[in-house]
Design brief:
By secondary structure, this protein is mainly alpha-helical. It is built from four helices and no strands. The longest helix is centred in the middle third of the chain and has 33 residues. 1% of the residues are buried.
Length: 102
């Protein structure tokens, strides 16, 4: 398989797995008898910790995997503009744009 097809297949598999796991939490909540009206402090703390962990995973993924590919893809543009930090600017702008939309 070529690289593009491998990336597309991986993206679809990861997206479907995340979606299925997200849907399974609805059934788990019903099985445990947790209702939306019964929000306890421990549930709030656990939810907050899980959201912080998820944000950290997304940030680490963007910095460790996407940034080197962005640098490699923008080498010509960086040299022509004379800006050595163009890739970092684009990645940060994209990250904050997604953060703003959410």
């Amino acid at each position: 398989m070529n690289l593009l097809l491998t990336k597309l297949v991986t993206m679809v598999i990861l997206g479907l797995c995340s979606f299925i796991i997200g849907l399974s939490t609805i059934q788990l909540r019903k099985c445990l008898g947790l209702q939306a009206s019964e929000v306890r402090r421990s549930q709030t703390v656990i939810t907050s910790l899980l959201l912080c962990f998820g944000a950290g995973v997304l940030l680490a993924t963007s910095m460790l995997h996407i940034l080197p590919e962005t640098r490699h893809g923008m080498e010509e543009a960086q040299e022509s503009l004379g800006i050595s930090w163009l890739a970092e600017l684009v990645v940060c702008a994209g990250f904050f744009l997604v953060y703003l939309v959410e």
